[in-house]
Amino acid sequence: MPKDRIHPKGLAGLKYSLKRFLGTQFGNILKAAALRRKYGLDKKNYFSGPGDAFYEVAIVAIFKGEEEYLQEWIEFHRVVGVEHFFLYDNGDSLAARELLSSYIEDGVVTYIPFPEFPDKAMRSKYGKNQFRKLSMQNLAYGDFVRLYAPHCRWAVKIDLDEFIYPVPPFNTLSEAFDRFDKPGVKGFSVRAYRFGPSGGEHRSGKPVIETYSMRYPEPDKNWKVVGCSRSLSTISRYHGAHNWFYKLTSFAGHLYDDQTCTAVRINHYYVKSREEYLDKIERHSVGHKAGKETADKWPLADAQANFQDEGDILHFLPALKERLG
Questions:
Q1: In sequence order, what are the residues at sequence separation of 6 or more whose Cβ sits closer than 8 angstroms to the Cβ of residue 164?
Q2: What's the CA gap between 168 and 153, in Å, rounded?
Q3: Which pTM does this prediction carry?
Q4: What pLDDT does residue 12 have?
Q5: Which of 66, 81, 156, 260 is deepest in the core (most CB within 10 A)?
Protein backbone atom coordinates (compact mmCIF):
# COMPACT_ATOMS: atom_id res chain seq x y z
CA MET A 1 0.00 0.00 0.00
CA PRO A 2 1.40 3.44 -0.88
CA LYS A 3 2.61 5.39 2.12
CA ASP A 4 0.13 8.22 1.58
CA ARG A 5 -2.78 5.74 1.82
CA ILE A 6 -1.80 4.48 5.28
CA HIS A 7 -3.89 5.91 8.12
CA PRO A 8 -1.46 7.67 10.50
CA LYS A 9 -1.43 6.81 14.21
CA GLY A 10 -1.32 8.81 17.42
CA LEU A 11 -1.86 12.58 17.33
CA ALA A 12 -1.35 12.60 13.59
CA GLY A 13 -4.10 9.99 13.27
CA LEU A 14 -6.46 12.07 15.39
CA LYS A 15 -5.83 15.12 13.21
CA TYR A 16 -6.32 13.00 10.07
CA SER A 17 -9.66 11.63 11.31
CA LEU A 18 -10.82 15.07 12.43
CA LYS A 19 -9.93 16.56 9.05
CA ARG A 20 -11.83 13.82 7.21
CA PHE A 21 -14.85 14.19 9.53
CA LEU A 22 -14.98 17.96 9.21
CA GLY A 23 -14.48 17.73 5.47
CA THR A 24 -17.34 15.27 5.12
CA GLN A 25 -19.59 17.23 7.44
CA PHE A 26 -18.89 20.54 5.69
CA GLY A 27 -19.56 18.94 2.32
CA ASN A 28 -22.84 17.50 3.55
CA ILE A 29 -23.85 20.87 5.01
CA LEU A 30 -23.48 22.43 1.56
CA LYS A 31 -25.28 19.54 -0.16
CA ALA A 32 -28.11 19.54 2.39
CA ALA A 33 -28.58 23.30 1.95
CA ALA A 34 -28.71 22.84 -1.82
CA LEU A 35 -31.28 20.05 -1.50
CA ARG A 36 -33.46 22.19 0.75
CA ARG A 37 -33.44 24.93 -1.89
CA LYS A 38 -34.00 22.51 -4.77
CA TYR A 39 -37.02 20.86 -3.17
CA GLY A 40 -38.33 24.01 -1.48
CA LEU A 41 -38.31 22.50 1.98
CA ASP A 42 -38.20 25.81 3.85
CA LYS A 43 -41.58 26.63 2.28
CA LYS A 44 -43.19 23.35 3.40
CA ASN A 45 -44.25 23.81 7.00
CA TYR A 46 -46.88 21.25 8.01
CA PHE A 47 -47.16 22.10 11.71
CA SER A 48 -50.62 21.06 12.94
CA GLY A 49 -50.61 22.65 16.40
CA PRO A 50 -51.41 26.24 17.39
CA GLY A 51 -48.84 28.74 16.17
CA ASP A 52 -47.69 29.53 19.70
CA ALA A 53 -47.69 25.89 20.85
CA PHE A 54 -44.78 24.81 23.03
CA TYR A 55 -44.33 21.22 24.24
CA GLU A 56 -42.16 19.94 27.04
CA VAL A 57 -41.43 16.66 25.23
CA ALA A 58 -41.82 15.94 21.51
CA ILE A 59 -40.69 13.05 19.32
CA VAL A 60 -39.37 13.27 15.77
CA ALA A 61 -39.31 10.08 13.68
CA ILE A 62 -39.18 8.96 10.07
CA PHE A 63 -41.00 5.80 8.99
CA LYS A 64 -41.86 3.76 5.91
CA GLY A 65 -44.59 1.13 5.64
CA GLU A 66 -45.00 0.71 9.40
CA GLU A 67 -48.64 1.77 9.65
CA GLU A 68 -49.63 -1.31 11.66
CA TYR A 69 -47.43 -0.14 14.54
CA LEU A 70 -48.29 3.56 14.48
CA GLN A 71 -51.25 3.59 16.86
CA GLU A 72 -49.59 1.53 19.59
CA TRP A 73 -46.36 3.51 19.29
CA ILE A 74 -48.15 6.86 19.51
CA GLU A 75 -50.47 5.85 22.34
CA PHE A 76 -47.64 4.32 24.36
CA HIS A 77 -45.66 7.51 24.16
CA ARG A 78 -48.70 9.58 25.05
CA VAL A 79 -48.99 7.42 28.18
CA VAL A 80 -45.42 8.30 29.18
CA GLY A 81 -45.99 12.01 28.57
CA VAL A 82 -45.02 12.85 24.99
CA GLU A 83 -47.14 15.81 23.92
CA HIS A 84 -46.46 16.01 20.19
CA PHE A 85 -45.10 13.90 17.34
CA PHE A 86 -43.34 15.13 14.20
CA LEU A 87 -43.67 12.20 11.80
CA TYR A 88 -41.89 12.06 8.44
CA ASP A 89 -43.49 9.54 6.09
CA ASN A 90 -40.77 8.22 3.79
CA GLY A 91 -43.42 6.13 2.02
CA ASP A 92 -45.83 9.05 1.50
CA SER A 93 -48.63 6.60 2.28
CA LEU A 94 -52.37 7.16 1.98
CA ALA A 95 -52.88 4.50 4.66
CA ALA A 96 -50.66 6.45 7.08
CA ARG A 97 -52.46 9.71 6.38
CA GLU A 98 -55.84 8.10 7.03
CA LEU A 99 -54.69 6.41 10.21
CA LEU A 100 -53.14 9.62 11.52
CA SER A 101 -55.95 11.95 10.45
CA SER A 102 -57.59 12.21 13.89
CA TYR A 103 -54.22 12.81 15.57
CA ILE A 104 -53.44 15.53 13.04
CA GLU A 105 -56.83 17.18 13.54
CA ASP A 106 -56.35 17.10 17.32
CA GLY A 107 -52.95 18.75 17.02
CA VAL A 108 -51.12 15.70 18.41
CA VAL A 109 -49.24 14.77 15.21
CA THR A 110 -47.55 16.91 12.59
CA TYR A 111 -47.46 14.74 9.48
CA ILE A 112 -44.76 15.48 6.89
CA PRO A 113 -44.75 13.57 3.56
CA PHE A 114 -41.09 12.87 2.82
CA PRO A 115 -40.61 10.46 -0.11
CA GLU A 116 -37.15 9.68 -1.50
CA PHE A 117 -35.41 12.47 -3.40
CA PRO A 118 -34.16 11.23 -6.80
CA ASP A 119 -30.83 12.99 -6.44
CA LYS A 120 -27.26 11.78 -6.90
CA ALA A 121 -26.26 13.50 -3.65
CA MET A 122 -28.49 11.07 -1.74
CA ARG A 123 -27.63 7.65 -0.40
CA SER A 124 -29.37 5.03 -2.53
CA LYS A 125 -28.47 1.93 -0.53
CA TYR A 126 -27.14 0.79 2.82
CA GLY A 127 -23.46 0.04 3.27
CA LYS A 128 -20.16 1.26 4.64
CA ASN A 129 -19.23 3.04 1.43
CA GLN A 130 -22.55 4.91 1.56
CA PHE A 131 -22.56 6.11 5.18
CA ARG A 132 -20.87 9.42 4.39
CA LYS A 133 -23.66 10.37 2.00
CA LEU A 134 -26.86 12.13 2.97
CA SER A 135 -29.97 10.05 3.57
CA MET A 136 -33.64 10.93 3.81
CA GLN A 137 -33.38 10.14 7.51
CA ASN A 138 -30.73 12.70 8.40
CA LEU A 139 -32.33 15.28 6.11
CA ALA A 140 -35.62 14.77 7.96
CA TYR A 141 -33.91 15.47 11.29
CA GLY A 142 -32.37 18.60 9.84
CA ASP A 143 -35.77 19.69 8.55
CA PHE A 144 -37.24 19.21 12.02
CA VAL A 145 -34.58 21.41 13.61
CA ARG A 146 -35.08 24.13 11.00
CA LEU A 147 -38.89 24.25 11.11
CA TYR A 148 -40.27 22.61 14.23
CA ALA A 149 -37.76 22.39 17.09
CA PRO A 150 -38.70 25.85 18.48
CA HIS A 151 -42.05 24.31 19.45
CA CYS A 152 -40.55 22.01 22.09
CA ARG A 153 -38.13 21.96 25.01
CA TRP A 154 -36.86 18.39 24.58
CA ALA A 155 -36.56 16.74 21.14
CA VAL A 156 -36.50 12.94 21.26
CA LYS A 157 -35.15 11.18 18.15
CA ILE A 158 -36.25 7.55 17.84
CA ASP A 159 -37.67 5.08 15.29
CA LEU A 160 -41.03 3.33 15.26
CA ASP A 161 -39.50 0.11 16.60
CA GLU A 162 -38.12 1.99 19.63
CA PHE A 163 -40.06 2.79 22.79
CA ILE A 164 -38.57 5.33 25.20
CA TYR A 165 -39.86 5.36 28.77
CA PRO A 166 -39.01 6.56 32.28
CA VAL A 167 -37.51 4.19 34.81
CA PRO A 168 -39.14 4.00 38.29
CA PRO A 169 -39.67 6.05 40.38
CA PHE A 170 -40.43 8.38 37.43
CA ASN A 171 -43.83 8.04 35.76
CA THR A 172 -43.41 10.40 32.82
CA LEU A 173 -40.56 11.41 30.54
CA SER A 174 -40.99 15.01 31.62
CA GLU A 175 -40.33 14.03 35.24
CA ALA A 176 -37.26 12.05 34.22
CA PHE A 177 -35.94 14.78 31.92
CA ASP A 178 -36.30 17.39 34.68
CA ARG A 179 -33.18 15.86 36.21
CA PHE A 180 -31.21 17.06 33.20
CA ASP A 181 -32.91 20.41 32.60
CA LYS A 182 -29.98 22.56 33.65
CA PRO A 183 -28.12 25.45 31.97
CA GLY A 184 -25.06 23.21 31.64
CA VAL A 185 -26.84 20.45 29.68
CA LYS A 186 -27.54 20.70 25.93
CA GLY A 187 -28.62 17.09 25.47
CA PHE A 188 -28.13 13.53 26.61
CA SER A 189 -27.80 9.97 25.34
CA VAL A 190 -30.14 7.10 26.16
CA ARG A 191 -29.24 3.45 26.60
CA ALA A 192 -31.21 0.92 24.53
CA TYR A 193 -31.90 -2.78 24.94
CA ARG A 194 -32.38 -4.65 21.68
CA PHE A 195 -35.10 -7.28 21.63
CA GLY A 196 -35.44 -10.38 19.46
CA PRO A 197 -38.42 -12.36 18.16
CA SER A 198 -38.84 -14.44 21.34
CA GLY A 199 -39.39 -17.48 19.12
CA GLY A 200 -42.40 -15.93 17.38
CA GLU A 201 -43.11 -17.10 13.84
CA HIS A 202 -46.25 -15.03 13.27
CA ARG A 203 -47.92 -11.81 14.45
CA SER A 204 -49.36 -12.28 17.92
CA GLY A 205 -52.21 -9.78 17.71
CA LYS A 206 -51.01 -8.32 21.01
CA PRO A 207 -49.13 -5.06 21.65
CA VAL A 208 -45.45 -5.14 20.72
CA ILE A 209 -44.33 -4.37 24.27
CA GLU A 210 -46.34 -7.36 25.55
CA THR A 211 -45.34 -9.81 22.82
CA TYR A 212 -41.55 -9.58 22.93
CA SER A 213 -39.75 -10.14 26.22
CA MET A 214 -36.41 -11.71 25.24
CA ARG A 215 -33.51 -9.36 24.57
CA TYR A 216 -29.77 -9.29 24.12
CA PRO A 217 -27.96 -9.46 27.49
CA GLU A 218 -25.93 -6.30 26.92
CA PRO A 219 -27.34 -2.89 25.98
CA ASP A 220 -26.52 -0.69 23.03
CA LYS A 221 -24.84 2.17 24.85
CA ASN A 222 -25.48 5.82 23.98
CA TRP A 223 -27.93 4.57 21.38
CA LYS A 224 -30.17 7.58 20.76
CA VAL A 225 -30.15 11.18 21.90
CA VAL A 226 -32.52 13.71 23.39
CA GLY A 227 -31.65 17.32 22.62
CA CYS A 228 -32.51 20.57 24.32
CA SER A 229 -34.06 22.34 21.33
CA ARG A 230 -32.57 25.74 22.06
CA SER A 231 -29.10 24.19 21.69
CA LEU A 232 -29.64 22.43 18.34
CA SER A 233 -27.80 23.75 15.29
CA THR A 234 -29.79 24.97 12.29
CA ILE A 235 -26.64 25.59 10.25
CA SER A 236 -25.95 21.99 9.24
CA ARG A 237 -29.39 21.42 7.56
CA TYR A 238 -29.04 17.73 8.48
CA HIS A 239 -28.50 15.75 11.70
CA GLY A 240 -27.24 12.22 12.29
CA ALA A 241 -29.43 9.25 13.18
CA HIS A 242 -27.68 8.82 16.54
CA ASN A 243 -26.57 12.34 17.37
CA TRP A 244 -27.64 15.97 17.30
CA PHE A 245 -25.33 18.71 16.07
CA TYR A 246 -25.25 21.50 18.64
CA LYS A 247 -24.74 25.22 18.21
CA LEU A 248 -21.11 26.28 18.37
CA THR A 249 -22.14 29.04 20.77
CA SER A 250 -23.54 26.48 23.21
CA PHE A 251 -20.94 25.84 25.91
CA ALA A 252 -23.16 23.38 27.74
CA GLY A 253 -22.23 19.71 27.94
CA HIS A 254 -23.75 16.46 26.70
CA LEU A 255 -24.59 13.70 29.19
CA TYR A 256 -23.90 10.07 28.31
CA ASP A 257 -26.02 7.08 29.21
CA ASP A 258 -24.07 6.11 32.31
CA GLN A 259 -25.45 9.39 33.71
CA THR A 260 -29.02 8.90 32.46
CA CYS A 261 -29.70 5.14 32.63
CA THR A 262 -31.33 5.35 36.08
CA ALA A 263 -33.96 7.73 34.70
CA VAL A 264 -34.74 6.76 31.12
CA ARG A 265 -34.39 3.79 28.79
CA ILE A 266 -35.25 2.58 25.27
CA ASN A 267 -36.62 -0.83 24.29
CA HIS A 268 -35.65 -1.51 20.69
CA TYR A 269 -37.87 -4.13 19.04
CA TYR A 270 -35.67 -4.46 15.99
CA VAL A 271 -36.48 -8.04 14.98
CA LYS A 272 -40.05 -9.16 15.63
CA SER A 273 -41.72 -12.36 14.40
CA ARG A 274 -40.40 -14.06 11.27
CA GLU A 275 -43.53 -12.97 9.39
CA GLU A 276 -43.02 -9.33 10.33
CA TYR A 277 -39.31 -9.41 9.61
CA LEU A 278 -39.89 -10.69 6.08
CA ASP A 279 -42.24 -7.74 5.60
CA LYS A 280 -39.50 -5.44 6.90
CA ILE A 281 -37.06 -6.81 4.31
CA GLU A 282 -39.60 -6.01 1.59
CA ARG A 283 -40.18 -2.46 2.89
CA HIS A 284 -36.47 -1.71 2.74
CA SER A 285 -35.80 -3.35 -0.62
CA VAL A 286 -35.46 0.11 -2.16
CA GLY A 287 -34.48 3.52 -0.81
CA HIS A 288 -31.75 4.65 1.55
CA LYS A 289 -31.97 1.45 3.63
CA ALA A 290 -31.85 -0.94 0.67
CA GLY A 291 -29.70 -3.94 1.52
CA LYS A 292 -29.76 -3.41 5.29
CA GLU A 293 -32.15 -6.25 6.13
CA THR A 294 -31.36 -9.86 5.22
CA ALA A 295 -33.17 -13.10 6.03
CA ASP A 296 -30.26 -14.53 8.03
CA LYS A 297 -30.69 -11.86 10.71
CA TRP A 298 -33.91 -13.43 12.04
CA PRO A 299 -32.51 -16.78 13.31
CA LEU A 300 -29.41 -15.00 14.58
CA ALA A 301 -31.49 -12.54 16.60
CA ASP A 302 -33.69 -15.35 17.92
CA ALA A 303 -30.61 -17.20 19.19
CA GLN A 304 -28.73 -14.22 20.60
CA ALA A 305 -31.66 -12.46 22.25
CA ASN A 306 -31.75 -15.06 25.00
CA PHE A 307 -32.08 -12.88 28.11
CA GLN A 308 -35.42 -12.40 29.85
CA ASP A 309 -36.06 -8.68 30.24
CA GLU A 310 -37.03 -7.38 33.68
CA GLY A 311 -40.24 -5.97 32.23
CA ASP A 312 -40.15 -2.40 33.55
CA ILE A 313 -42.00 -1.26 30.44
CA LEU A 314 -45.00 -3.43 31.34
CA HIS A 315 -45.83 -0.93 34.09
CA PHE A 316 -47.40 1.10 31.27
CA LEU A 317 -49.23 -1.80 29.58
CA PRO A 318 -52.65 -1.43 31.33
CA ALA A 319 -52.85 2.27 30.41
CA LEU A 320 -51.77 1.46 26.85
CA LYS A 321 -54.43 -1.25 26.46
CA GLU A 322 -57.06 1.12 27.75
CA ARG A 323 -56.07 3.70 25.13
CA LEU A 324 -56.08 1.05 22.41
CA GLY A 325 -59.57 -0.07 23.44
A1: 59, 77, 80, 156, 158, 173, 190, 224, 264, 265, 266
A2: 22
A3: 0.91
A4: 57
A5: 156
